[in-house]
Design goal:
- This protein has about 425 residues and is mainly alpha-helical.
- It has one domain.
- The chain contains 15 helices and no strands.
- The longest helix has about 40 residues.
Length: about 425
Amino acid sequence: MSATLIILVLLIVTALAFDFTNGFHDTGNAMATSIATGALKPKVAVLLAGILNLVGAFLSVEVAATVTTQVLKIQDAKTGHLVSSVTASTGLTIIFAGLIGGILWNLFTWLFGIPSSSSHALFGGLIGAGIAAIGMKGVNWNGITQKVIIPAVAAPVIAGVVAAVGTWLVYRITRNVMKKRREEGFRWGQIATASLVALSHGTNDAQKTMGVIALALITTGHLKGDIVKNGLPVWIIGSCALAIGLGTYIGGWRVIRTLGKGLVEIESPQGFAAEASSAAIILSSSAAGMALSTTHVATGSILGSGVGKPGAEVRWAVAGRMAVAWLLTLPLAALVGAVTFWISHAIAGFSSALVGDLVIFAILVAASYYMWWRAQQQKVDSSNVNADWDETTNSVVPADVREAKVGGAKPKEPIA
């Protein structure tokens, strides 16, 4: 087996690992409000989201095509071949380093329960690695602006406005309905809207990993042609669908908690309006081939549902912390992508590209394990995801878990 083929296999494994982190990082986009309102039990919610993400991944390839052509200029748009200035080895290392940037930012923000964009983490990593390898000319700035940056700014605003109007209308129309009856009715509606968000998430986010794997195969000459016209190999679609489905089933409980409890104390009519808004916008963007951040859409919708309900309280401090993370996602993921490319390239200078890529893979594994270990010290899971939010600290970790850690005692068992 050649060194290039080994790197390709390692890259595909890493891409599927990113897809897995994308799944558990973004579970909350679909199910946080349904879990918070009691429409679905936590474990049932993540199982349903996992299945629907898997199904959604098979529905289209437009977003995958965006990833292969609109981020980096390493593929000739006319012939579909690798551009002459990039060797197969360099192209693979660029993609590999970009994936590492995306995964590490996903895990870092998950650790703190911040619903940041997995999509922008991936694009940031690829951009940083591309600039480190071939300079500013290696990035398709026009494509990034049209397909990534403009949707990133517009999507949460549009989602927030739509959800706010929808929430106001829902409460206006049902103002004479008994609160208990209204809550119960909209919980059933939430199951349908949350399912639609999960399905739409699969149509959008799973395709980004498909696009990355396709780009790697184009780099090595294993894949040619227009993937929109000719489609992708079934094994790429199936493996990416399974990875994001499994990741979603694992459940990123920290992010689910922030979205469901940290932004707004949400009721089922608000959840219904927020989820309906998110699903409509995500599905529309997928059809247009826009690599939209489903996190931005879902967060904008939840904030909008708080604004739209008379008398609702929005925790703007939590929203502000998330906005800062959104602004930092592209540049910091790009920095990680660039640094990991430079490390691999430097090692390849006195050894080989294979050794360089193995080193950055080892760095990824070590850093990922550390963040997972840190999360286990103050665990958030299905048993405490709906615990009361502590507004004095705005920490994603429930107060009793933090106190137990300090005191050395076990946290209290949640009341059923």
